[in-house]
Write a structure and sequence with these properties.
181 residues, alpha+beta, 16% strand
Length: 181
């Protein structure tokens, strides 16, 4: 994880994603530290067959909604994190991204659709995927806040909110309990 550690020590890719709004610098730093500690590197599923019907339901640049939709519709596991898109979209950087897993390997419907339909914008799939799996029950709970279950209506990341709900709040409770002793 050396490259990602090095990159994140000088960069904050979540600052470029309008959906990631941190309350303050302390929260941003705590989130980044948690991500570095918990994120796993995933291999890409090179032989996965993408259904044309599923690719048609995917919206371009809608990785969060696409991934959550496929997690609900197909029971694919859903992961959010960072991806290194081969320098074809950004130069030697990691960007926030949501993707799915099948047999513990990445199946990236959003990038696959772009590669298939507009290769002039993205000619090959990313080389590195890092992320944290969002539990299925959490995805379902959050999806109920939307009008419909579709990539369009689910188009917001869950990782920051998941961290706030599951990790940050538990840390704060633990800290306040310890202070009372």
């Amino acid at each position: 994880m050396t490259d990602l550690n090095d990159f994140l020590s000088y960069n904050d890719p979540w600052n470029n994603d309008p959906f990631y709004l941190f309350e303050n610098d302390s929260e941003r730093i705590a989130f980044k530290e948690w991500f570095l500690k918990e994120a796993k590197k995933y291999n890409y599923h090179t032989h996965y067959k993408y259904s044309q019907e599923l690719l048609e339901s995917i919206i371009p640049a809608g990785c969060y909604g696409n991934g959550q939709y496929l997690a609900i519709k197909n029971k694919n596991k859903y992961v959010e994190g960072l991806v290194s898109p081969n320098g074809t979209y950004v130069n030697d950087e990691y960007i926030p991204h949501g993707f799915n897993l099948a047999q513990k390997r990445v199946v990236d419907f959003t990038y696959k659709k772009i590669v298939n339909e507009t290769p002039k914008y993205l000619s090959k799939l990313p080389t590195e995927y890092w992320g944290i799996e969002i539990p299925y029950d959490y995805i379902l709970q959050e999806s109920k806040k939307n009008e419909k279950i579709s990539p369009y209506f689910l188009h917001k990341p869950l990782l920051l909110q998941y961290w706030r709900d599951q990790i940050k709040s538990n840390c704060l409770l633990y800290t306040s309990d310890a202070a009372d002793d």
